Amino acid sequence: MHRLLRNICPRPRVVKNRAFSSSVIEISDEVQNALHHGKPVVALESTIVTHGMPHPNNLETALSVEKIIRDNGVVPATIGILKGKVRVGKYKS
After folding, report:
1. C-alpha distance from residue 20 to each of 29, 31, 40, 49, 51 (Å)
2. Potential cystine with 76: which of 6, 17, 21, 69 (Cβ 3.0-4.6 Å)?
3. Which chain regions cross the lipid bilayer (predicted)?
């Protein structure tokens, strides 16, 4: 049974930062640090901000969800495309 579970849910592997140093993917320092130290990270999509809800409710809701996640000891990693780059984590833009 242990072997079966090991194959279904393998131990997460930390990917070296250089794998994400491409000009296409940018991961925030906060998310990279959490992954490096084995802290929990949850991926969030950015659709709610771009066209899921009207402004300003979209941004308020997205920030509220991130706060709930942080309050539970998890790092939120909102994923979106900005200026042709896949962005993972919090960015001021």
Report:
1. 11, 12, 19, 24, 27
2. 69
3. none
pLDDT in tens, the chain (93 residues): 455 555 555 555 555 555 555 678 899 999 999 999 999 999 999 887 787 788 888 889 989 999 999 999 999 999 998 888 899 997 655
11: CB partners within 8 A, 6+ apart: none
What are the residue boundaries of the structural domains of the chain, listed by start? 2-88
pLDDT at 54: 83
Tokens of 80: 């979106």
Q: Rounded distance, CA 24 to CA 88, Å?
A: 11
Distance CA 88, CA 44 (A): 9
